[in-house]
Write a structure and sequence with these properties.
Oligomer: single chain
Order of helices and strands: HHHHHH
Number of strands: 0
Radius of gyration: 15 Å
Shape: elongated
Distance between the termini: 43 Å
Largest sheet: none
Length: 116
């Protein structure tokens, strides 16, 4: 059996691995964090077919991982990492958590209408 190098993994494979790691509360790599940070809770529910509770768990884990990665960077100063954890121009998953349940339901309904 041959082992695949992580660098050869596609973005979809990294995304699915990052979601599984988040749901099982495992540490994320910076690449996995960046992929999840580019998504919103709505994207996780619609495109990745997660339940609302699973999407919230991923968002909660992202918040913990942002703090862990920031602390690790500040302690070791390795690699390139914005200590605030926010990339300009991208609201990302953590900031989109401010969406209310009613707004999220409306968003999901609109997206479902588009697909019909």
């Amino acid at each position: 059996m041959s082992k695949r190098i992580l660098n050869e993994a596609s973005e979809e494979e990294l995304l699915s691995a990052a979601i599984q790691k988040s749901l099982s509360s495992a540490p994320l790599t910076i690449e996995e964090y960046d992929i999840l940070n580019a998504l919103t809770v709505g994207d996780l529910i619609i495109e990745q077919e997660l339940t609302y509770d699973e999407a919230n768990k991923v968002a909660y884990w992202m918040k913990n991982e942002k703090q862990r990665i920031t602390d690790e960077y500040l302690y070791q100063r390795t690699g390139e990492w914005d200590p605030r954890g926010v990339r300009p121009g991208s609201p990302g998953l953590i900031e989109s958590k401010k969406t209310t349940t009613q707004q999220l339901r409306h968003f999901v309904r609109c997206e479902l209408r588009k697909t019909k």
